[in-house]
Amino acid sequence: MTDADPFVHFEDLDSELTQSFIQQADAAAQAEFASSDEYTAVRDDIVTMLQDEQQIPFCQEHRARMYHFYQSAEFPKGVYRVCSATSYRAGLPEWEILFSVADFDSLLNDDVYLQGVAHYVQAPEHVLISLSAGGSDAAYTIEFNLAERKVVEGGFHFPLSKSIISWRDTESVWVCPAWDERQLTQAGYPRQVWLMRRGQSFAEALPILEMAAEGMMVNAWRYLDSQGAPIDLLEAAEGFYHKQYYQVLADFSVKPLGLPDDCELMGYLYGQLLVQLRSDWQRANKSYPAGSLVAVKLHKGELGAAELIFLPTETQAIENIETTRRFVLVSILDNVHSRLLAWHFADSRWQEITLPNLPEGALEITDQPWGGDVVYLAISNFLEPLTLYTLDIHLDELCVMRRQPRQFNPQGMQVRQFNAVAADGTFIPYFHVGKQIGEDTPTIVYVYGGFAMPQLPYYLGSIGRHWLARGYAFVLANVRGGGEFGPLWHQAAQGINKHISVGDLLAVLHDLYKHHRAVAAHTAIQGGSNGGLVVASAFCREPQSMGAMVCEVPLTDMLRYPYLSAGSSWIDEYGNPENSLERPALKLLSPYHNLGDLQHYPPALITTNRHDDRVHPAHALKFYARLRQLKQRVWLAAPDTGGHAGGGTQENTAAELALIMNFLYKTIVNNDSI
């Protein structure tokens, strides 16, 4: 295939040709995989599980009140509700509905879904509601008063856009606007920062910072410090991993902070910035290694003394950082297993403290109520459902709050961790889950491998219920490009080396087959977004190494990706096709450009969502069209609603999962000649 693009017209989503093509393709996929009794049974069962009233209601706690977004058959778009912390902890929550998402459809004259609710933590009845249009990243922002249960008249309301709005205090907000082309970077994100006070129009707001349109995006926020005064910070990102930080001073001037341009600010406590390093930082004759967490004193834009808090080993990586009233919590991965650590600032230095023993599993900090030392922890593993804990760090107390009901019987199932060997000799870990391990066992191999995001052993839920319970197997591949082992693990498969993620996935497949844990005919590879790129590239490189592919909301055209939707924001991750050194590597990686005329490919299911404004649907459409042109067995699922993260209702989610399951049943389980 030459650089001339025969399907470039699919980049125009509004054209009748594109719309007709999507509708016909989706109808064919629905007819093939969503019309059987088995599909209906799986879909309805998943809906039932999602709407089970015994599911844990994950909440935000503010001033002893628990706020929860709830969806059900009665409220498919969901409601935002509240109960007292006392009734929640007693297991008998007395819910009051604060607003219904569906009510905003008529107000905004649009089909909207809840994207988020931002409380001002010191006065939590003040919220900014983000309402996505059709599931897209673009959203309306509405100020709502929860005490009065109504939209604030003349409040902080902003039009549909990818704007970033955040509370400064109850009377002002930081606004990074994105509803006018003049406000946007080339990636379609905000490039201006404004301070807007209550009662002002946007024209009356105070401009603070503007970056060049060639950058990626700006952001602004306020850090509250329970041990001192708040600070206002700005971020101007040139790319995904390179940014400049500024402090907004009392006179609203901005002062650049002398931090490394590839670090991440993770918190602020005791007047110190918590900085996670991606590369070594040499400062004041002292070196702070890549991957470490460093605390740096800050005073009026000037950095003071720095102290190393935590340095991961070769098998470790920092996953998340949270501050409480008096402590810094760090969740780490150690050989892809979660651990939790904590530090307290005393006697002018950071001192590690001992925490209660936690169960094995993937750990997530789900909430940290402002002003205290309690955190909510969700812990699960492949076979054990989520348990919600409260951890009071100050009192050294760990309590069980809720246990998620089982979705499948794990009896006879095992979790094993193996290592494949990549082409360069690197060990690539992967988890194998199932009752059986052998060549006749249908096996899903799931991968992501990008943006330093680790893939963890979370509870498998619907997969466990509709795949593992049938005696089939699931494999999670921890390939390079992810964040399982710190910055170097990610950087090894970044830019012109992105192909290494693909090689690692193929190494996992080869290891499965070499040790008779699976065979290609009964193995499907699956990934979404960046993972969709990885599986599609592996599919093109070695189609004989798999029996099917599920490629969800993928990137596939790596020569045009920077010009589609938010694509230019990912140049740090993939490289630039306009760079003469990087373009050849991108062309070799690009699935769309590596489909061979004489090649035979296994069955493929590609998905996209018509409201996806992050990864442009043209990636999926063009890849599908090219495979159709080659007369391959390929289907495209593209529902009317949903964005990059999927559907907006539980029914939408269940329908997509059931369709994928049915595709897998027909291909790698039954080997139907579809």
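Second entry:
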Amino acid sequence: MPLCGGKHLVLRFNYRPDIDAMRGIAVLAVFIYHLNEAWLPGGFTGVDVFFVISGYVVTGSLLGHQGEGPWQQLAGFYVRRIRRLLPNLLASVGVTSLGIALLVPPSETRSLFVDAVKALYGWSNNRFAAKATDYFGLDSNLNPLSHTWSLGVEEQFYLIFPLLLLLIGVGRRRALPILLGLSLASLGLSLWWTQEAPILAFFLMPSRFWELSAGAVLLLAQLKGFGGHLNRLWLRLGGYGLMLLALLKTSSLQWFPAPGALVAVLATLLLLQAGYGATSERFLPWRGLERFLVACGLISYSLYLWHWPVLTFLRWTYGIDRFWLYSLAIGLSFGLAWLAYVLVEQPVRRRPLSAPLQWGLSLAAIAVTWTGIDALAHPYRGKFFLGSGVDPVPKLEKIAEHRPVIVGTDISDASCSVANWLPYNIKNRTDFSRCSKAGRAGAGEIFLLGDSHAHHLLPMLDQVTNKTGQSISFTFKSSCLISPDITVSFDNKPYEPCRSFAAGEIDRAIQRLKPNDIVLVSTWLNKQLADIDGRGRPNDFPVYVNGKRLTPAQVRSAYIASSRRIAKQLAAKGIQLVLVLDIPTLAREPVVCEAWGKLLANREGGTFCSPTAAITAEMQTTLRNTLAQVAKGLPNVHIFDPTDQLLFAGRVQHRRPDGTLQYADSHHLSYSGSKGLAEGFQRFLNSQGLTGGNTR
């Protein structure tokens, strides 16, 4: 297969059925995993198989044109990639956007249309990283475009890799060591990001570069004579074994992409080496199975593009939990993939146009598709495009929509929040002359402090203080843990302004509050302190002390120590500290509960939104024990636990049995849900002797 000519490495890259068979395995593995992850727990590593194959094949394509000038090589490569990838991508994204407009509730469509636009020019992976999307979570499973992240990784690789090869000079002796060094650097970055920023490690191209370049390194090594003495049978058997191990045993709980992808990458490299130069050998001893895999490999790109929107739209409408629904999903996925392959992908590839014309048509097609998506996203697009139903959370139930939250005041998220990334100082802090509610003289003050989990308590606090006569002051900072000693994460980086906010507001409270006034602290503790999330998976939220990332247990220890110091500072001034035990977390957003609720109510007793009782109990018990340690021996510390008011038969519900909405999203109370806690909170204040006013 390889030819050496002059100072260039020139490669005649003959068709290899074994590569298409591997593509078939990869796309089927991903498809099966997406149908039901329990059927093939490591099926998502099929994407890693694709990455290695792509690096290998693209390098072969580039080497096949080494005899051309640099500009011709680059222009020709990009034109071939556009012709190969763009038509089917545009068709898929366009049809999917139409499906979003028709089938997804309108409250969810705005973000999805933005995802669609990002997918048009290969930016999906960066978009999902910026949104802190959990690929294995519900937000991804209900996004019909979340699978385009891998296309973004590949397209960004295709953009820079030809330039890299030209820069290092493929025909030179140094090329292979340089590329190998870059691959190892990428692997190192992946390992580091996996520890510090796992979402970035999963989605971003620099931490995936090593997988794509692994295929390139193998091909360059083969051209240098590597592997000629190795036994093909043993290579193939080793590749089969590792592939099975990757697909059956790799867990989504593993840190990813490293070490979780290593087995799949190694398996693919072994199989690529086993098939190198073996023109007469078969990939599998079973001809029928091999032909099926090759056929799936030929439509693998199309099947990858089209299967995921089919699955997500079924989830939004009928669900996928019965035999006939699984059959429908398989039939629609393969049918649409084959039609797109025959009617879109192949005609474009078989009828190449001149480069200028192809560039022009490509830009025009992107512009037209983009315009169409914007038209579908327009709020006045007409009654035909209204999704599958109204938003189950009306604006009146969304506390953030209330401006103000408390009538007769300026209290709202806009007036009382402190800018996320600006330093905390006298110019960048809440003005309590605006963010307060007056009370009865001598009744004392409740100072509500925290993040959005403090903000959603305002309706409750308003109702209670109407009876107790206490005044309210309020400030919050998004996603902020109230501790001057602990640094949480926000926007995928350490959130240092949160610490200065916590320290500054505690100091200000000590200066301005009177004896027996109350500091009421509420934050998203289930995100910041828990061992698991609402799906029962390990909590990987990054939290730091002095630059060192902590385990959840270490975070809780640091939080206990920090909160006790705050409590003692407040006690010296006679100020009471009330810590709110975070509300239980839902497993799914209410909009999803409403979309699927009728289908699953009979089988799940109307608890489709709920984690299992055991998961909720574990999360709430962890917080309860932590706050109890804070309060131990400190008479000015009181714990308000709203958990029991939100549970029914041990499970948290987005609606009460009478239909009243409790939650606005998976971890924020609705307006009605917040007011529903008022009676319990007033009983708590009375029982703790916290309604007697201050001693001015």
